Amino acid sequence: MIIFPAIDIRDGKCVRLTEGRFDKETIFGDYPADMAKKWASLGAEFLHIVDLDGALAGKSVNLPAIQAILDSVDIPVQLGGGIRTIENIEEVLKLGVSRVILGSIAVQSPELVKVACEKFGDKIVVGIDARDGIVAVEGWGVSGGVEAEELAKKMAAVGVKRIVYTDISRDGTLTGVNTEATAKLARVSGIKVIASGGVRSIQDMIDVKAVEADGVEGVIVGKAIYTDSLDLVEALKVAKGE
Description:
The chain has helices at residues 32-41, 52-57, 63-72, 86-95, 104-108, 110-120, 148-157, 179-189, 202-210, 223-226, 232-239; strands spanning 2-10, 13-18, 21-29, 47-51, 77-80, 99-102, 124-131, 134-137, 142-147, 162-167, 192-196, 216-221. By secondary structure, the chain is of the alpha/beta class. It has a single domain (2-239), classed as TIM Barrel (Alpha-Beta Barrel). Strand 1 (2-10) and strand 2 form a beta hairpin.
């Protein structure tokens, strides 16, 4: 099981939102690269970066901050937030990003996702963000009008090997991971899924570890490690089965 510390960037700063709402923002640091170095120093093996301004703009915005993160750590980074063209995918991969997460475009243009998978292979990840099982797009502000499980199966059919599944209603709320829905998504799609949204405590790590056999290969941790609700070092021990 892989634990992905999350670094959400808005206006160049490291922030956290609650339920994806931009009016519920907490700033945790002026320099996201410093946060990246902190999580890497504690043993993190992979970082999850979200360009929040990019999610609204429909293209990468915080590239200087992202480049600073890439320059400051030696561990791989996956990046999401408004990446909706092949050119933008190429741009961030050239910076040194290991994986690119496609969100809204998976709903709006499955054909582009197929082309991206053919060109970049498993560097492409699809982010499925859902509220009550229905996918949300455009920075979570608009309903995509499709069920998460249906979209997951479509993405598997076009060559996607990995999904990040976020339960928006739990994101940033510290109310626990929706492991049941995450595990079901992995089973019905037949591809690997990373859980996201609601992580609160070490129990969530145990719960996610328990559904690893279903195809849930990791979990993204955000507010919990920023507010010390979850100790990253302890979480990493659970992930490794120690």
